[in-house]
Amino acid sequence: MPSDLVLLIVVTDIDMPRMDGIELVSLIRKDVHLRNTPIMIVSYKDREEDRSRGLDAGADYYLTKSTFQDEALIHAVVDMIGEATE
For residue 10, which phi and psi values (nearest 5 degrees)? Predict the structure, then answer.
């Protein structure tokens, strides 16, 4: 991997002040320069309806804060961008 390569991952919540996370995910997926950016939603909303909305909008992962663990976050990041290399 070239040293000047920048990896971008977006981590968002659903509830935010001016725009909800579902709208943010949708806008990222529509942008030609950002559409392939890995996106994870971390939210307190744990209903299946909320999870489906997030994934249908284009999020790669939906983690709930009530079951959040460091290992789940690390697994999701590795799944989205791969293992770290030296």
Answer: -100, 125
Encode pLDDT of 61-81 as tens digits: 999 988 778 888 888 888 888
Mean per-residue pLDDT of the chain: 88
> Quick check: 51 pLDDT over 60?
yes
Q: What is the length of the chain?
A: 86
CATH of 10-67, one of 3.90.1150.10, 1.10.3470.10, 3.40.1110.10, 3.40.50.2300: 3.40.50.2300
Show the CA angle centred on residue 9, arms to residues 15 and 64, nearest 5°: 40
